[in-house]
Fold this protein.
Amino acid sequence: MGAQLRVYKRRIRSVTATKKITKAMEMIAASRVVKAQRKVRSSTPYAEELTRAVTAVGTGSDAKHPLTTEAENPTRVAVLLLTSDRGLAGAFNANAIKAAEQLTERLEREGKEVDTYIVGRRGLAHYNFRERAVAESFAGFTDEPTYADAKKVAAPLIEAIEKETADGGVDELHIVYTEFVSMMTQSAIGSRMLPLRLEEVAEETSSTKDEVLPLYDFEPSAEDVLDALLPRYVESRVYNALLQSAASKHAATRRAMKSATDNAGELINTLSRLANAARQAEITQEISEIVGGAGALADANAGSDN
Amino acid sequence: MAAELHVALVAADREVWSGEATLVVARTTSGDIGVMPGHQPLLGVLESGPVTIRTSEGGTVVAAVHGGFISFADDKLSLLAEVAELSDEIDVQRAERARERAKSEDDTPAERRADVRLRAVTTGR
């Protein structure tokens, strides 16, 4: 076998091995997307009921709670960025980080100081590499987040918003995560979690759109209910965002691995053609050498006969 | 007037139970509260404790609920809980072990949670 043919054969072997790996990763991601989607769906009833309750308290009482009223001059805000622990997911993390940076820039232009909270090793690595301050970070659960994880993430945020701004607290809470629109579309979005905009909250729950909320009797009192309700609301929003982010990450991985597998297939095709051409060229060369050699021998024999 | 109310007991990550009922008893921060059809709209904070649901078919469903809310309007009752378990889902031995462990470690909230679980099991039978 010629040297060139050997090189092609070796490359085809290595690309085939890579293709097998990416194909397996694609299949794993595909099954995880389905699981993650199911988790998103099963968390919806709780989130919906909670949103309904928050809207009910917000509209049904004139209680003034620090978490529903906007500060006159917000000076410090918290931004929670959700990324993944592992890469190989195309532009998934890059998009989320970009969205967070745009949001941070906008908030800073408005004269607000931004505290960044990060979930996922990828986002943390990005910020650490650029030596940017990170208030707190969490990692190790982005593939399959549980409610306990959401509580852990939400706890410092709730603490920060309940503190006075002068003592290092924050006035607003923003969250940047990747929304799972469909298998093919996931978009990084940034939204304000607190203080609540009641109109927005009401819009999110389509079932309450044309419905007049009844006048509730609060037990023990509207303030106490709101006090207990809002941390749960933040936790549930964080949980939902974590789940969507996980589903989006798996979908992005699936897509990235699918195109890697496709590219590997294409590369194998091209390399096989080149290898075939090389083999054919080798054969042609051998034939012409033999024919040429035989011709020369025949000529020599014919010459000696004379 | 409808003689039954629609109950949905939802935990943070799943719907635990839903169906028609005639009476629901839950523990709020200011004491036990019983809700029957036609009750006035209500929104309350739940303590951890057992929730008893008397179903329309005459059966009783008991669940251990740890923190959450009760909201009632238009004969629809929602019980929101971070953690909720039906009495027949609770592993008695595990709950007992958890209680022993919490006792030895002086972990009062954990002990109370295990206690609530065990109580839900005994009332559910």
